[in-house]
Write a structure and sequence with these properties.
The protein has 218 residues and is an alpha/beta fold. It has a domain of 138 residues: Glutaredoxin (3-Layer(aba) Sandwich). 46% of the residues lie in helices and 17% in strands. It contains 10 helices and 9 strands. The strands form 3 sheets. A 5-stranded mixed sheet has the order 5-4-3-8-9. Strands 1-2 form a two-stranded antiparallel sheet. Strands 6-7 form a two-stranded antiparallel ribbon. Strand 8 and strand 9 form a beta hairpin. Helix 1 runs antiparallel to helix 5. The chain is globular.
C-alpha cells in the first residue's frame, strides 16, 4: 500500500499533467507566500495545552473534546473541506488505519470550517468511522493558530474552479486553515503537532501512531 504522501504526490502529478501551468500559478504563489509568513512555526506546539472545544458533528450533535479525552488519547485532524482531494485522501488513510488507532485506546475527530450540511454530504459519500465536526468561523482553528486569510488573487482562482469558500463555510471572510494533525494526551497536552503551509503535504498517519506508541511506553 502506498504511503499517504506518495498518494498525494500522485494527485499533484495528475493535476500538473491535466492543467495548464498558468492555471496552477495562483496556488503555487499562495503556498509560497503563506510559507514565508512562518505560520508553520507559529502553530500550537508540542508540550502546550490544547484548547477545549465543543463542536457540532454531521448530525448537529455537539461533541466535546473533554468527553473524548476522558476515554483516552485523541487525534485531531484539521482538514480544509470536502472539495479538497488531498484532504479526502488523508481522511481515507485515517479510515484505513482507524482500527490500529482504536487498538491503542485512542480516538480521532476530523474538523473543518465547512458547515454541518457540508459535513453531512461528505459522510454520505465517504462514510468515515470517526466524527466529522464543523468549526464555524474557524474559532477552534484560530486557537490552534492554523487559520489564515485567503489573498484576493487566490479567491479569484478558487471562484474560477467553482470552490465557493464563503458558501461552503457559511462565512464571508474567505478564511481557511492549514491542514494539521495533533495528538492530544488525556490531560489535553499536545504530544504531536504538524501542519504545513503547502496543502499538498501531510504527515504520515504512521508517524502519529508511533508517537502514540511512545506515549504508551512511558
Amino acid at each position: 500500500m502506498l504511503k499517504l504522501q506518495d498518494q498525494l504526490d500522485q494527485i499533484s502529478e495528475q493535476t500538473r499533467n491535466l492543467v495548464q501551468p498558468e492555471r496552477l500559478q495562483p496556488s503555487e504563489r499562495a503556498v509560497a507566500e503563506l510559507f514565508s509568513t512562518g505560520i508553520e512555526q507559529q502553530i500550537l506546539p508540542v508540550g502546550s495545552m490544547a484548547p477545549e472545544f465543543s463542536l457540532p458533528d454531521a448530525n448537529g450533535r455537539i461533541v466535546r473534546s473533554a468527553d473524548l479525552l476522558a476515554l483516552g488519547p485523541l487525534v485531531v485532524n484539521f482538514f480544509r473541506g470536502r472539495w479538497c482531494p488531498y484532504c479526502l485522501t488523508e481522511l481515507a488513510a485515517w479510515r484505513d488505519l482507524y482500527p490500529e488507532l482504536r487498538k491503542r485506546g485512542a480516538l480521532l475527530v476530523a474538523i473543518s470550517p465547512q458547515t454541518v450540511h457540508q459535513n453531512d454530504l461528505l459522510l454520505q459519500q465517504h462514510p468515515f468511522p470517526f466524527p466529522v465536526l464543523s468549526d464555524p468561523g474557524l474559532a477552534v482553528a484560530e486557537r490552534f493558530r492554523i487559520a489564515y486569510s485567503v489573498p484576493l488573487y487566490h479567491q479569484k482562482h478558487y471562484r474560477s474552479i467553482l470552490v465557493n469558500v464563503p458558501f461552503i463555510n457559511d462565512d464571508p471572510s474567505w478564511r481557511l486553515l492549514l491542514p494539521a494533525t495533533y495528538l492530544l494526551r488525556p490531560d489535553g497536552s499536545i504530544a504531536f503537532a504538524q501542519a504545513h503551509a503547502d496543502f499538498r503535504v501531510r504527515p504520515e498517519p504512521e508517524e502519529v501512531l508511533a508517537a502514540l506508541d511512545r506515549e504508551r511506553s512511558l
